[in-house]
Amino acid sequence: MTKLKKVIELTDGTIIIKPFQEEDAEEHLRGEDSEQIKWLNGGCKSTVDSVRNWIKRNRKSREKGGPVFNFAIRTLEDGKLIGMVEAGIDFEIIEGIKEGDANISYGLYPAARGKGYAARAVILMVSFLKAKGLKQAIIRSEPENPGSLKVPERCGFTRTGQIVTGSGGELIIFEKKLQ
Question: What's the order of all strands across the beta sheet hosting 15-18?
Answer without folding.
Answer: 10-11, 15-18, 68-75, 81-88, 101-108, 136-141, 169-177, 158-166
